[in-house]
Design goal:
Layout (H helix, E strand, L loop, with lengths): L3 E3 L16 H6 L6 H15 L3 H11 L2 E3 H12 L5 H12 L8 H13 L3 H15 L5 H14 L2 H10 L9 H14 L2 H11 L7 H9 L4 H13 L6 H13 L3 H13 L6 H13 L3 H10 L9 H13 L3 H13 L6 H13 L3 H13 L6 H13 L3 H14 L4 H14 L3 H13 L6 H13 L3 H11 L27
Helix pairs in contact: 2-3, 2-4, 4-6, 5-6, 6-8, 8-9, 8-10, 9-10, 10-11, 10-12, 12-13, 12-14, 13-14, 14-15, 14-16, 15-16, 16-17, 16-18, 17-18, 18-19, 18-20, 20-21, 20-22, 22-23, 22-24, 23-24, 24-25, 24-26, 25-27
Length: 506
């Protein structure tokens, strides 16, 4: 193969506060790209523009780019966060993997499996895993198992997820407790805690539960009674609780409003010689806020330093959230000021606490001012930030603001194009801005982001009414690069939901 392969394993002046962010964040907000970034872009375009595996091979050969593991990982990561054709990415993955002496990294394998799983290409997933098993079984880790089962669990039943888990017994180097824990983690995230509990009891005889097992099972409960049952079983089996165990149970107590129990457990862990960490205190801060005691939570923020535990951004965010819920924005901004004075930079989560308050009070002016300052100080908004802003823009029919946000996203690459574009296209179509809608649609496709079929149909109808047949034909051709719409099977289709979990342990 002629492919060249290299294998190697600031002040924020808004209302009440003044913040300063690092030069690193400012560089992150910069649109400048390195030569390496341009190579990633080029390979990504080659993958999406290739009409066949042979064309893909020829284009890569003539590109003159040395395809290292680092570059391949970056390209596949780009594929993951776009909605380009997964089968073309798979051809790229296979083509590179066939090169003599070349092996994919665990990252590239897991990323490729995630992309295929997202589009329900489960047959291709098992095909890849069987190939990898023959070539380098060590690449298949418990993280790989978690990636695959996570995609299966999203659209299939609990029984089918467990059946997928059992297939890994002949794939992974060691089918051990870490694999069992990965399954439980998936069920906690994608199904219900009841499902995770039932599977745990069905399979625990085949594995040796450890502290991680119980920490996973403790972390998702809203009911303290259920969590306490696992805590008792943990002690009966002689598994020693660690700081994560106590943090999980304290968090359950705080979320269920049982702050007194949380403090009792907090004292108990100290008696047993386990030092509370920043996560412990963050849970207590959140619990006190939920109990309507934001000032006491702020005292915890101060007191934890006396015990040698210094608050991080998440701890400050928990305290700020309490005051935002109490609509005491002045104190919330003071805490943000204090956060910066302690050398911590507010992150998008911090700003979203304020965006949420402004959104529910329909205050676009304050939201927009905060967004402008956020840009000025180099803090990249995340998808939630963008959704608060674009929905406010739609609600108040502020087209110019919505388009400015969109153009910032296109230029800087932050936020979800898919989610934001749906709201943006609704706004533009509502006010008759068809030319702007077409422009944004084309910008999105140029970014290799697929507009939703719902948005496309709405723009299509308006273009037909406006007799813009040539423009519509152009958009239709552009959409064709993403292939036909994916037919997603409904969860549990062709599966008897009445089937019990008794067969899990077989």
């Amino acid at each position: 193969m002629a492919l060249k392969l290299l294998h190697y394993q600031s002040p924020l002046r808004y209302a009440y506060f003044s913040l300063s962010l690092s030069s690193l964040q400012l560089r992150l907000f910069s649109s400048e790209k390195t030569p390496f970034d341009h190579e990633v872009d080029k390979v990504f375009r080659i993958i999406n523009d290739s009409s066949s595996p042979q064309k893909l091979k020829q284009s890569l050969n003539s590109s003159g780019i040395s395809l290292s593991n680092q570059l391949i990982d970056k390209v596949l990561k780009r594929v993951r966060f776009s909605h380009s054709n997964p089968l073309l990415a798979l051809e790229f993955f296979k083509l590179i993997g066939k090169s003599k002496g070349f092996y994919h990294t665990q990252f590239s394998l897991d990323t490729m499996l995630y992309v295929l799983g997202r589009t329900r290409k489960f047959d291709q997933i098992w095909e890849i895993l069987n190939d990898v098993k023959r070539e380098d079984r060590s690449l298949i880790s418990h993280r790989t198992l978690q990636v695959v089962l996570g995609r299966i669990a999203k659209v299939c039943s609990v029984r089918q997820t467990v059946e997928g888990f059992k297939k890994f017994k002949r794939l992974v180097p060691e089918f051990d407790t870490s694999c069992f824990n990965a399954l439980l983690r998936v069920l906690c995230q994608e199904k219900t805690m009841v499902d995770a509990r039932n599977v745990y009891h069905g399979l625990k005889g085949q594995f040796k539960p450890n502290a991680v097992t119980f920490n996973i099972l403790l972390s998702g409960w809203r009911s303290s009674e259920e969590a306490e049952e696992f805590f008792e079983e943990m002690k009966e089996l002689g598994v020693k609780p660690d700081v994560v165990t106590y943090n999980s149970l304290i968090d359950v107590y705080c979320k269920s409003g049982e702050v007194t129990k949380a403090y009792q457990l907090f004292n108990k862990m100290q008696e047993e010689g386990i030092c509370p960490d920043v996560i412990t205190y963050t849970s207590l801060i959140g619990g006190l806020g939920k109990a309507g005691q934001p000032d006491k939570a702020r005292d915890v923020l101060r007191e934890m330093r006396e015990y040698g535990c210094y608050p991080d951004a998440a701890a400050y965010n928990a305290a700020i959230r309490n005051y935002c819920i109490a609509k005491r924005l002045g104190v919330a901004f003071e805490l943000m000021n204090e956060m910066v004075a302690k050398g911590l930079s507010p992150n998008p989560t911090t700003f979203n606490l304020f965006f949420r308050v402004f959104y529910w009070s329909n205050d676009l002016k304050s939201s927009w001012r905060l967004y402008q300052q956020m840009k000025k100080d180099g803090c990249l908004p995340n998808t939630q930030s963008c959704m608060f802003l674009i929905r406010l823009c739609k609600r108040q029919e502020q087209v110019d603001m919505a388009l400015e946000l969109w153009n910032d996203m296109v230029e800087k690459g932050f936020g979800s194009f898919i989610l934001v574009s749906d709201v943006l296209f609704d706004l533009l179509c509502d006010v008759g801005k068809l030319v702007e809608a077409e422009t944004c649609f084309l910008q999105m496709i140029k970014k290799r982001q697929k507009p939703s079929n719902v948005s496309f149909r709405r723009i299509k109808v308006l273009m037909e009414l406006a007799n813009k047949h040539e423009a519509l034909e152009n958009l239709s051709q552009k959409m064709a690069i993403f292939g036909p719409p994916i037919q997603i099977r409904k969860p549990n289709e062709n599966f008897d939901d009445a089937t019990t979990l008794r067969s899990i342990a077989r």
